[in-house]
Amino acid sequence: MKIVKTRIGPNGRLQIPHDYLESLNLKVNDFVFLLLDEQNKSLRVSQFDATDLYEMLITMNDKPGTLAWLATVLYEHHFDLVFTEAHSIVRTKGAWWRVIGTFKGKPTTADLKKDLLKNGATSVTIIHL
């Protein structure tokens, strides 16, 4: 892992060293994710090439297999995952899963939400980014 000291410039711009950009295969005007971890006071930069993104926050029962069933539902709805993170809220009682991705084809968010709720989700929020 490389570490470099850099400066926040005007308008909150962060200067990323050229060799970092090359290592990540990033060019001027490429889109990136900025992942903020408020608890650890850290920021991650991640490359992506999708343009029509959706974010979902899914709460669920924390039973073995629930996350796998929900992932299968996303697959069946042709949802391509770009980023995910999941955490137990209270072990065996509840968990949440945040996913960011894109639909291959026309999105059917209402049907997707209904199917997620049928397969272990307790709530689903879908946001078009």
Please tell me about this protein's structure.
The protein is of the alpha+beta class. It folds into two domains: 38 residues, Ribbon (Pemi-like Protein 1, Chain: D), CATH 2.10.260; 75 residues, ACT domain (Alpha-Beta Plaits, 2-Layer Sandwich). The chain contains three helices and six strands. The strands form two sheets. Strands 4-5-3-6 form a four-stranded antiparallel beta sheet, with helices on one face. A two-stranded antiparallel sheet has the order 1-2. A hairpin with a 4-residue loop joins strand 1 and strand 2. It is globular and about 45 Å long. The mean pLDDT is 88. InterPro entries: ACT_dom, SpoVT-AbrB_dom, SpoVT-AbrB_sf. This is SpoVT-AbrB domain-containing protein.
Describe the biggest sheet?
4 strands, antiparallel
User: What is the CATH superfamily classification of the largest domain?
Assistant: ACT domain
Q: What are the secondary-structure elements, in order, as H or E?
A: HEEEHEEHE
Q: CATH topology of the largest domain, anyone?
A: Alpha-Beta Plaits
Structural class: alpha+beta
Mind telling me the C-alpha Rg? Answer: 18 Å
Distance N to C terminus: 30 Å
InterPro entries: ACT_dom, SpoVT-AbrB_dom, SpoVT-AbrB_sf
Domain SpoVT-AbrB: 3-50
Organism: Candidatus Bilamarchaeum dharawalense
GO molecular function: DNA binding
